[in-house]
Write a structure and sequence with these properties.
With 126 residues, the chain is an all-beta fold. It has no helices and eleven strands. Strand 5 (45-51) and strand 6 form a beta hairpin.
């Protein structure tokens, strides 16, 4: 069954902002660190950001660092990604993913994540 559902994607103008959300349906949410990945058309899926199980640590790709914020609400079992100052290079399908928490620093490795959402399209028009 679907365990991660993303929302919040859409069409936005360059320079604008977008907030993506991901809702988890599995009960052991706090056992997992959460990540966002994205895949542009014709390209491989890339890491965007990740957050530790308690929200105490975050990791960002250089491409979004300084203009993006990942956060989570364990009570609601959700994780969000706020992205600002969007450019056409941010156009992609964005995926939410979950990995069993193994350390204080959340992983950026796609292979560590074993739960994936179906993705939400973000299109930035210039």
């Amino acid at each position: 069954q679907v365990q991660l559902v993303e929302s919040g994607g859409g069409l936005v103008q360059a320079g604008g902002s977008l907030r993506l959300s991901c809702a988890a349906s599995f009960q052991t949410f706090t056992n997992y660190e959460m990540g966002w990945f994205r895949q542009a058309s014709g390209k491989e899926r890339d890491f965007v950001a990740s957050i530790s199980w308690n929200g105490g640590a975050t990791v960002y790709a250089d491409s979004v660092k300084g203009r993006s914020t990942i956060s989570r609400d364990n009570a609601k079992r959700t994780v969000s990604l706020q992205m600002n100052n969007l450019t056409s290079e941010d156009t992609a399908v964005y995926y939410c993913a979950a990995a069993v928490a193994r350390s204080w620093v959340p992983s950026r490795a796609e292979t560590e994540y074993d739960k994936w959402g179906q993705g939400t399209q973000v299109t930035v028009s210039s």
